[in-house]
Structure formats: C-alpha cells, structure tokens
Amino acid sequence: MLRVCMIGTGYVGLVSGSCLADFGNAVQCVDINEDTIATLNDGGIPIYEPGLKDMVARNVRSGRLAFSTNVGDAVKASDVVFIAVGTPAQEDGATNLTYVFDVAETIAEFLNGYKVVVQKSTVPVGTTREVARRIKAKVSADTEFDVVSNPEFLREGSAVEDFLRPNRVVIGVESDRAEQIMKQVYRPLYLLETPVVLTTLETAELTKHASNAFLATKISFINEIAAICELVGANVDDVAKGMGLDGRIGPKFLHAGVGFGGSCLPKDISSLNHLATSRGYVPHIVRAILELNNGLPDRAVDKLTIELGSIEGKTIGLLGLAFKPNTDDLREAPAIRIVKRLLEEKAAAVRVFDPVAMENFKITGLDVVYCKNAYDVADGCDGLMLVTEWNEFRQLDLPRLKKVMNEAVFVDCRNVYKPDRLEAYGFRYQSFGRGVAET
Ligand code: UGA
Known about the structure:
Rossmann fold, alpha/beta, binds uridine-5'-diphosphate-glucuronic acid, 19 helices, elongated, about 45% helix, 6-stranded parallel β-sheet
C-alpha cells in the first residue's frame, strides 16, 4: 500500500485523493484552508460533485483517507506527493503559478527520503521541470526525489466516474523508479487495461492543454456552423449528426449553443495562447476560439432583443446559471455575462433559478431575483432564457409556463427544445443554428 499525500483539496485534489484511496492507497489530503479541512473532517463536502460524498465517506471509514492542515507531517509520511493546488489565470491570460511553486518549496523543506512529486494541477509546459529545479535548489545534494507530470482529464459533474474509468492516463515520467511507483498508484487501472501514455514531462503537460483546446475547437466550430445555418436556412443539429457519424469526426462536443465556460476550457486556452505567443508563435486557431466563444452570450441576448424589440423595462427570466449541468460552478459561466448585459440594457428585473448554483451566484452581487423553480422564474416574465440544460428544464410543463408569463418569448441557449413544438404552444422561440429554409 502506497502512502499518498495530496496537497490541495479543491476540485481536482479532493476527487483524485478520494479515488486514489478507493484504489487502495493510504491518502492524506491536506490544505492550508482550515475551514475546508474542518468541513471535510465533519463529513461535509465543500463542492457539489455527484458521487463524491459517498466516496469520501466510504474511504474515511476504511481508514484509507484522512484530512489535515499539517502539510509538513503529511509530506514526511508519504511515498508520493501530489500537487493539486489552484493555478488561476492572470489578467494577461498567463497562469499564476505562485501556489504551485510555494508548495514545491514546502515539499523541499520536508523531503526526508526518496519521494515522487507529482504535478497534477493543469500548468503551462515547463512547470513540472521548474518544480524539480526549485526543490533541488533547496535540498542537500544527496536527497533523492523524482518529479512526474500527471494531468487530469476529469469533467465536472462526472469527475468520480472519469477518475475510476478514464479513457487514458497520461504520465510524464523520466525515471524507472518513479514509473514503477506511478504504476502502483494506478494499479486498478492497469488491471482494467486502461491505456497509459508514458512520455516526457513537457509532452504530458502539453497533452492536457491540447486536449482541452481541441474540445473547445469542436464546440466553437459547431457554433460557427450554427451561425452559418441561421443565414442559409440549415439545421445545425442535423449538420452535427451528419458530421458526427463520420468516425474520424465523432458525435461528441458538437452541441451548438451559448458556448463553453467553466474553470478549465477558457483558462487553458488563454494559457496556451499566452505560452505560444510568448515563444513567438501566433496560435491562430486558439485565438479564434476565444474570440468566437466570448461573443456568444451577447448573441443570446441579441436573439431576445429580436423578439422583444428592446430589453429596457422588461422582466427576463434565466433557467440555469451554472456553466453546465450537475455542477454549482459559475466560473466563466455564460449566465454571468448574460445577466450583466440584461442589467446594462435596463431590464426591469432579472429572475433566476438554478438547482444548485444560486448560492455561488450571490457572490457576484448582481441584482437578480432568486426564485424557487422554473415556473416561479417565469411568473410575469416577458422573456425566458434557458441557459443551463439541467434535466429538470428538459421536460417543462409548457402550457403552465406560458400561462404565468407576460409575453411568451423563449430563448433556448442550449437547443433543448424543437422549434415547432414550442411554436405549437404559442411561444415565440429562438435557439442557435436552426435556420428556416426559404421555400
Ligand atoms: C473539461 C474537459 O472536458 C475535461 O476533460 C478536463 O479534465 C477538464 O475540462 C479540466 O481541464 O479540468 P469541464 O470543464 O468539466 O471538463 O466540462 P465539459 O464537459 O468539457 O464542458 C465544458 C463546456 O463546454 C461547458 O460549458 C459545456 O456546456 C460546453 N459544451 C460542451 C458545449 O457548449 N457543447 C458541447 O457539445 C459540449
């Protein structure tokens, strides 16, 4: 049984730590945030992630998972130390690596024998080698350690499942000793014959950024096609279906709408843009993705304006705030830009409901009315925007909704409904990329 120290109990650290405990490792998750550790020690989970609470509880009960604020003791008592701290974006798109490097210094301070230091936070290429340099500079010449880059590919909302049954594991490792230890850490995945890509540190780091940039490219590409569909009377859902059946293209991430958000895709693309630019290369595709995606929330409000003439004095409802369903995460959520624009355009009121993200939305301080459910949102509204495709918004009682609305205008930012169905119920309906052919 390996002893693992997971530094950082944010999204990545908590999911990875508890899943590694489930794999049979003895895991100590540590964080300098005392409130977070106190919550975890009380059986609470600071983030919303399906399946995580049970996973944590089960492994705490089994004695394989513990939480503490004592980073030094946890490092000393471990064979493998994972760095899973935040890597926020700076104004210029570069990644703030302060927390990663601070942790590297702490690890160096408590290095009491050979350990593998694994960089798990998503970082620009070159960071893991820099972590090694910084540790080396602080320890005595005979102190042994290896660094590894092991990027995560978890999706919020299905992170536990993604960790337990990944498409692949990428490990940047440059010593046999560390490679053997990483194989032990992930033993159950080896038994399941999960593909493992063993590579250099830089290649592992870039594989992560390239994967997210490619997913964002697929989304942005279909959103561009959606705009063209509207101009030529074609239907983007069918175009995506027709494209996706080609095995070389694949059907996933071709869902048109108000664009991607979250803490990963936008940040990683900005970071890649910054990295390439700083090395003298203009990353054309990456820049175009950012430009296109940033304009989509405004496009959604423009669609509302087409139906209402003007937003001023109108009451608008938002169904969903989180950047995608099954998460309470609002980072880079299109809903934030949409609400800001509605308020800038002097909407009389913005009524909102999200099953789990409303508490987080309050932090924005934006002047909205928090409602109990979709029908409460719709009450007295001149326009309704479906922004996050939570399951409960997929089967709305449309006559009930229409009855309580002042004007039956519906902007479907995720193409959940079929235009003719909404129109049959008397809604004026707008969505993305469902052009109407001129006959
Ligand atoms: C993404 C990647 O999918 C993960 O593999 C990666 O590990 C993670 O980033 C990360 O770097 O940590 P995540 O941000 O949780 O995961 O969410 P996704 O499911 O990828 O969705 C991203 C955004 O794209 C959402 O706003 C979603 O609504 C949007 N999207 C997705 C579309 O607009 N259309 C689609 O067809 C698919």
